[in-house]
Each structure stands twice: as structure tokens, then as C-alpha cells.
Amino acid sequence: MTVWPTATLVSLTRAPQYGAIASGAKAPIGPRFVRQTDIASGRIDWSSVPYCDLDPSDFEKYALHRGDLLISRLGNGVGNAAIVREPHNAVFAGYLVRFQADPLKADPGYLGYALQSQDWRDHVASYRSGAAQPTLNAKQMGAFELPLPSLPEQRAIAATLVSLDDKIESNRRLISLVPELIRSRVEEHIAQGASDVSVSSLAKFVNGGAYTKGATGSGRMVVRIAELNSGPGASTVYNELDVPDDKTAHAGDILMSWSGSLGIYRWARDEAIINQHIFKVIPTGYPAWLVFDRIDAVIDVFRGYAADKATTMGHIKRGDLDTTTVQLPREEALRELDAALEPLWDRLLIAEQEVLRLEALRDAMLPELLSGRIRVPEAQEVET
């Protein structure tokens, strides 16, 4: 195994900089304003980035450039990092710190991936332990020590991981576009004539069970609302229980959380056990893509019901499924839509599953490449 020398983040970058103090706005009144809430999984989610009222004279000071590294310094997201791949005429907020790679010492893409590593997470945890409000300052960030292969190797490592992330991002775009297309086509046909039906008539809504009790730690994942929102994590429960099929999540199944954080989801992971507070939504006579879209169309209505009933945790009742109605296109229009949209719905599942596989591959390769246990052949050829 190759053993790389090590270096601190601050030794590989220019002087770190804290972001601008400004107010975000929906209207395009100024530059885009990247906040710590816009950073997830090593990337900036530009769909959520607002504009801001920054004084034009301060723009150059805070303007983002390709290759900039942004790290969150406060709150539950402390330590979240992202590399700027597309600047978008943007600046960054005060709860972020910017590091810029010294081009003679480090590749920004390589540093960006080092800031997604377990070593980085451990470094952040060493400062946030026991803190009521976790914080991380620029000096603490800069003290992070990371492996330092040669520049050609750094670039090759980054290129290998970027190729996976590009495929992931392509699939994510498809995942976001298909539901939008389905909604657009459904509403187009509803405008030409529609019928009102109750949500409860669309499907059978089967509640999960209390399956976290006596968990064995092995077997199938027990799907709670946390797993629906964020996927499996350190607190995920596994159990070897045998449960009925209507309380089992298979790839492609529709799930709906009805308590706490209400939402509608399509399960794409391995077979799992459905916990309480989650409905398995089993379509009854309607295509799955339509059932998902129609529930999604009124999910904010259900969230309103839950907010009105909130004590410790808001929820809806089965009666709300009966009294809440949705519009459906006419029967002949539905047949036409199903022929066009069912293949897209199936393709959507393929994209969702491919994202999971590619993310798992990238996450497995990241520590191996950073440690030198796996070498990139192209970089080895450059060095020899």
C-alpha cells in the first residue's frame, strides 16, 4: 500500500474567509446567496439558493469562484462542506467559511473529497462534542490533517470520483424532472374535464407496526420516518421479524408518513419492514404514478391538518383520507396518460436505484483512494 505524506488544510490553501452578512430574498434583486442550508452531500443545491441584497461594492470580496471550498461553521450542519463547481454569480453567507486551494500544492477537487471523508467527520466531531450549539472556526477547520499525494494523483482521484458524481447528478435531474412532467400532463388533462374522488378511494392505506421493539440488529431495515427522509444511518434499526407483505416495503412501493413529518415517498431500497406512523399505499384500480401524484398534490393539505392537531407531534386521521378529495382526468384521458407515463414511472425507479448504487460505490472508493490503498492507473503512469 502506498503511504502518502500528510498536510494540514490551512497549509494547502490561501487564507480562509468568512462570508457576507446579508438577507436572502426570493426576488432576483442581487447575486445568489449560498447559505449553509444549501449544502448537502458535498454539493450546493442551487435550486434552494435565494438572491440577496448585498451592497454591490462588497460583491468582489465575497464572490464565489470555481473550485472554492465552503464549510459550514455553526449548528447541526457544522462541518458540511461543498466545492463550487458552477459559481452562478453568487456570494456566500456569514455562517460559511471559504478556503481556496493553492494551485501549486493541492487540487481543489481532491480537497473537496477529503472534506467528505470519515477523517474529516471525526475531526469535526472532536470540536463539537458536548457543545449545546456546535461551532467550528476557520482555525479549527484549517488544522485538519489529510493525506497529500502528488498533484497528478490528486487530480486523478478527483476525476475518478467526479465521474461517479456526474452520473449521480444526471440521475437526480431525471428524478426531479419526471414527477414534474407527470404533474404537468395530469393537470393538462384535468383542465379538459375532471372528476373529484376521495384520497382514500385511490388506494389501500396500511399502517406499519411497532417493529423496533426487541430489534435483533440484523435482518431487514425497519423503515421509520428518519429513513424515509435521510436514508439509513447510525440509529437505523434492523430486525429479523416476519411481517405481512402489506407491511413490507419493496422497491417501487409508495409510502406515506402520516405523523410528524408528513410526506409521500417511493421506496427504492432493498426489501424492508415498515414501522408505525407510515402507510404502505397500495393502489386500488389506479396506476401507481397517478396515486403518487394525486397524494403529492394534496400533501400540504394533510400537513395543515396535522399542524392543527399538533400536541407533541402532529398527525392526520384516517377520516382525513376520506374527506380530502383530489381531481382525476376522465377515464379515456387516463388510459392515454398511462400509456405515456407508466414507462417514465418505471424509468424513475431505475434512476433512483442507480443513484443508491453509485453513491455506495463512491463512498466505498473514497477512503481507499485517499489512503492510497487503491491507486488510479493514469496517475501512476504520470509519476513513472
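(ticket continues) Second input and output from the same batch:
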Amino acid sequence: MRFIHAADLHLDSPLSGLRERAGEQADKLIGATRRAFEKLVDFAVDEAVDLVVIAGDVFDGDWPDHGTGLFFVKMLARLNAAGIPVAMIRGNHDAASVISRRLTWPGNVREFSSRVPETWTLSDLGIAIHGQSFADRAIPQNLAAGYPEPVPGLFNIGILHTSATGRPGHDTYAPCELRDLLSKGYDYWALGHVHTREVLCEEPYVIFPGNLQGRHVNEPGAKGFTLVTVEGGRIRQVETIPVDVVRWARIVVDVSSASALDETCPLIGRALKAAVDGADGRMLAIRLVLTGACPAHRALAGDPERLEAECSSLALQAQGDVWIERVDVETVAPETASTASEGFNDLVQLLHDVRTDPDERTVIRDALEQGLGKLPAGARSKSGLEDLAPEQLERILADAEALLLHHLTTEPVQL
């Protein structure tokens, strides 16, 4: 008997502003969550698996229309036609109180109640599945504590959407300790909510499979589902099956040897080619991070438009499907850097004094906070400036200094 354990599909997860930034590649990114689930269904049908388990967050939130639900029904109907049952629960993103629209699922689907834990027995497969959906987005209580006893003589699977003991980047929902899960005596725990694959225990297996498709740079690497093979009531094999169609990556390139922007290109190009070679033919969405103390710092930070164009050009030359999501310049000017004249040195010193003077930094920070406070809801978070921590403010000031000095040294003075 083989079953698929998946979670956190987040179908049609909104990616605000992506079409404007990604251009012709936007459609691939926007449709990635659907195509990843299609690949799961293709695998299930082609391999004739016996069961599909989905541990919450099928949807990213309320549907803007019925299109998202209809796509899901279409995929469930394919599994139904192949005789594959589906056990699913709702998580915090698609809790019963969150999704206002409803569709009737095909007959092969069992969606577990949000009121009390339930058990679904599939006698022909020798399986008992226990689960409970989220009634509301925020579930502070330990749902696992109320799960029923295992059914004797059957392979018992628990489905739970939970933050467990807490994970960075994930809100605390239905918290529980590992001992709470182990005490139930189930043969397998199918968890959801955490988007990075994690095996909490192997006797019995307690697994977060991660999400099917990364949605941003903080969800990098291969994504997919877990395939579990059971023989004689015991787990014989646990496999990770990647189905992501777009792979996110944060690539750090040390450009300390470069004295000019042109000299960074071979370094960046090699890093992009290596990423393409390791992407298994998938589209890559890459955030480039340039580091190192180098004479090219002023040109890199001072001319972001040309830098981004050069990086996009290098992506085209990497012979893969690559989108440069962003270029972060974290280089610094070497301490030995010299300036052109005494007057220019005075300007550099003035800029340095502004950056290091606590009172000046406070004035600048207050002005930035006032401007950021006028941004539309969500825009500040997407800019990465939700918290103007000291290191973020330092990077903003350093970039502003490099931008000013670059233009003063490269643009002709108009008399």
C-alpha cells in the first residue's frame, strides 16, 4: 500500500506586483501552484497510489471567484476516476470561517469536520485516518490532544495542521509537543503548516512534507510531497518526490576581486550557470546577493538600473529559464579607496558624518518611517522594510551614499 502525504498547496496564492516585475515570465510564476498540484495528480494516477492525504491549506484564502475551487474539483475528479480516495483537512489559510464560497467535492473525498476529530476507516486498504479541520484561522489549543484512539489491526494515520513546538516564520497554530503525537499510538503523522520539509521522528514517522511549490525567495530549494510505502502494516520506505515547477534560490556571489562593474559579470555568470545546472530543468527565480569589499562597490550600488540589466543579460546567457527577482548589493568600498580631490574628500567625509551621527540617523529614520507609513497595505512588507532595524537603515544610507557619489563622478557637470 502506498500513499501520498502533501500539505500547503496554497492554490492561486496571490503574488502582488509580479506581472509588472516578471514580464513575460509572470504567467509561469503565477500558475506554478496549480501546475505543481497537477504534477502530484499525474504521479498519483500514473503510479496507481492507494491514497492521497492533504494536511491543510489547500487554498491560500477565500476564493476571489469559483475558478480556484473548480480547478481543485477537476483534479479531485481525476483521482476519483482512478479510484484513489483523498483525505483532507483545512488549515489556517482555508479554515471553515475563511472560505465563503463552497463546492461539493467528488465522492472519493473525505474532508474532516472542524467541530470534532473524526476517524475515516478504509477497510479495503487496512487504514484508519484521524483528523480535524480548522474552524477558524487562529487555533490556539492543542487539537492533537482530542484525537481518538487508534483502531486495532489497522494502519493508523493522523492528519494535523500544526506549528508543533513553533517554527521561525510560521504563526503558532494548534501547538503540540512531539510526545503528544507519539502518545496516540498512530503509525504515521501527516503534518502540515510548516513549508520546509522536516522529519520530526522516525519511530513512528512524524513528517512535515513542506509545501508543493515555493512562492518566494524565503521558500527556496526543491518542493514536493512525501510518498509512503507500507508492507505488512509497517512502513517500508519514505520518499520525497519533488513536483515544483519554479525553484527559488538566493545566490550569494563574492565580487571582492572586481574593480569595475564589468569585472563582476564573469563571477555572476558562473554562479548563474551553476544554479541552472542544479535546477533539474526547472525555471529558476533568483535573488542575487553581491558581497565583498571591492573597488566596484560604488558602480554596483550607484547604478542599480544598469546592474539589474547586466544580471538579466547574464541570466539569458545561462541557457536556462531564469528570472532575476532582485539584486541586493551588500558590497562595501575598500578602506584603501581614494577620492579625486580635496573637495570630493570633504563631501565623502560629510556623508560619512551623516551616516554615523546618531542625531542625523534619527532624523532620517523618522522621515523614512513617515514615508513608509503612507504605503498601501502589504506594500511595506513586500519591500522588506517592515522593520527599519539598525542594519537595514545602515544599508539604505550606504546605498544612498554610493548612488550620490557614483553620479557625481560619472555624470558631466552642466554649466
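Agent notes: The chain has twelve helices and 15 strands. The longest strand covers residues 283-293. Closing as not reproducible unless the customer responds.
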